[in-house]
Structure formats: structure tokens, C-alpha cells
Amino acid sequence: MRTPLTVGIASLAILATSFTPVLATEKRELDSHEHGHVKLEIAIEGNAMEIKLEAPGESIVGFEHAAKTDDQKAAVAKAREQLSDANTLFVIPADAGCTVQASSAELHQHGNHNEFEGEYTFNCTNTAALASMETKLFSLYPSIEEIDVDYVSANGQGSVELEADSPRITFAPAG
């Protein structure tokens, strides 16, 4: 005999299994890179600020396969050098007193795609002055359409989506 409870449970089971392919597709899309979209993760703790960057090779050098020609190899070398210079990529308020402690960028091949990954560490004498900062990534790499930023600091955490006409990251105020 079917009671309202068994009908409800059966309906929930059908509903749950019908969402499984959708959830799997969303998971797959989150794990893959998207041309023109860069990710930045920023962590500020004590006197340290760390930034991690992920950018599809196509958005930086114009192609996503392994470099084959001399021109492509030169473009990758130039991008690695430029992406390894934190002072070229980020504009940090002078009042924060931040100096670069470590800065690096590598190109990683993932199947038919390549991706630049950068890591930047700063020592700051006054992280309280880090209310905001800017990135020069849009002006350096015009193929970048947007930058998704996730950040965490003593003042809070948040996410922001940057575009070329608004390259400033404003951190959550204390409160």
C-alpha cells in the first residue's frame, strides 16, 4: 500500500537521481579552465600576503597547446618572466609597506591545454593599509576578460569579479 510518506520518499529519490548528471556537469565545468578568465586567491595574515594566480595559456600567450615554434617558445618565456614579477602585476598601496619575498610563475600542460600558475609572497609592515589593491593583468594581457578573486584577511573574506574597466580589489572592511 502506498502511503503519502512512501510516495514522498520515492519522489525525493527520483528527484535526487535526476539532478546527478547536472551536478556532475557543474563539477566538471568548475574544474576546467575558461578562456579569458583568470583566478586569483589572496590571503593576508599577520604581516604576510600571498597571492596565487591561475590563467589559461590562451589568455596569456594566445594559444593553449605546447609551444612548437620559436615565436611560441619566445612568447612563453616572455610571459613566464613577466608573470614572475609581482611588482609588474600588482599595485599595492605604498602605506602598506609591502615588499616581495618570493615570486614565481610556471606553465603547466594539462592534456591539450596549458595554464600559467603564479605564486607571490609579500611581507608588509602595515597590512591595515591594505584596504584595496589593483592588478595590471588586463593591460598586460588584453585577452583576459575577467578575473575572479577570492580573498581572506583579518577583516573578513569575500569574492569579487574584476573586469578591465575595474581592476581594483577592495577588501572587506573591519567590522
Summarize the structure.
This protein has helices at 4-31, 57-61, 70-83, 86-89, 137-140; strands at 37-45, 48-56, 90-91, 98-110, 113-124, 132-135, 146-153, 156-163, 168-170. With 175 residues, the protein is an alpha+beta fold. The protein folds into two domains: 1-31; 35-170, no CATH class.
Choose one word for the global shape: elongated
The residue-averaged pLDDT reads 83
Helix content: 25-40%
Q: How far do the termini sit from each other?
A: 58 Å
State Rg.
21 Å
What portion of the residues fall into strands of 2 or more residues?
A: 35-45%
How many domain modules? 2
Provide the spatial order of strands within the biggest beta sheet: 4-5-2-1-7-8
Biggest sheet overview: 6 strands, mixed
Number of helices: 5
The sequence of SSEs as H and E is HEEHHHEEEEHEEE
Low-confidence stretches: 2-32
Helix and strand content put the structural class at alpha+beta
Features:
about 180 residues, alpha+beta, 2 domains, 6-stranded mixed beta sheet, 3-stranded antiparallel beta sheet, 5 helices, disordered N terminus, signal, ZrgA-like, DUF2796 domain-containing protein
